[in-house]
Amino acid sequence: MPATVIVGAQWGDEGKGKIVDLLAQESDLVCRYQGGPNAGHTIVVDGETFKIRAIPSGIVGGVASAIGAGCVVDPDVLVSELDELEGRGCRTDGLVFVSGNAHLIMPWHVALDGARERRLGRLQIGTTRRGIGPAYADKATRIGIRVQDLLDPKILREKIELAAGEKNVWLERVYGIEPFDAEEVVVRTLAHAERLAPYVTDTSLLVDRALRDGRKVLFEGAQGTLLDLDHGTYPFVTSSSPIAAGAAVSFGIGPQRIDEVLGVSKAYVTRVGEGPFPSEIEGEAQQRVRELGAEFGTVTGRERRCGWLDLVALRFAVRVNGITSLALTKVDVLSEFDEIPVCVRYRLLDGEETDDFPANQSDFHHCAPVFETLAGWLEPLDSAPLPRAARAYVDFVAGALGVPVTIVGTGASREAVLTL
Ligand code: IMP
Question: Does any ligand 1 atom lie closer than 6 A to the CB of residue 125?
Answer without folding.
Answer: yes
